[in-house]
Each structure stands twice: as C-alpha cells, then as structure tokens.
Specification:
two-stranded antiparallel sheet; HTH_dom_conjug_TS-like; Helix-turn-helix domain-containing protein; alpha+beta; 5 helices
C-alpha cells in the first residue's frame, strides 16, 4: 500500500485565484490554464500512424488538439463560480 503525500498532489493543482481570473476573461490567467493542460491535451490528441513500410509512429493530431483547446477555452469562459 502506498501512502500519498498531500503536498505532492496539491502542487499540480491550479490555484483558485487563477481559475477565478480566467473565468472573468483575464488573458494571462487563461494562458496559464491552457499551459497547465497542454501536456494532457497532447496526450489525448496522440494518434498511432503507420508509414508505407508498416512502421508505427505516434504523432499529435493537430486538428484534434486544436478542437480540444477550443473546447477548454469555451469551458473556461462559460464556467460559473458559485459562492
């Protein structure tokens, strides 16, 4: 059984103030959120491709990555914080 360190988990979270600023349209905060999810989006958009010799190559599908980034941006701007 592994014990998880709460401080290690929290260091990967975005601070609430950045999320709050991003929902109000602050461009720097939105860029911070987009940068935070950049790796995850690239992982989701990675596709297996085969060349003419049958070799496998993994590459990021640019169209899918752009669609995921647009969906994240739309979600950020529509997100409502309830207090």
């Amino acid at each position: 059984m592994s014990v998880k360190n709460k401080n290690t988990e929290e260091k990967w979270l975005l601070p609430f103030c950045i999320i709050e600023d991003a929902t109000t349209g602050n461009v720097m905060a939105i860029n911070t959120v987009m940068k935070h999810y950049e790796g995850y989006i690239a992982k989701l958009a990675t596709r297996k491709m085969y060349d003419e010799y049958g070799n496998v190559h993994y590459c990021v599908d640019k169209t899918l990555r752009d669609r995921l980034e647009a969906k994240l941006l739309k979600t950020i701007l529509e997100f409502k914080i309830v207090r």
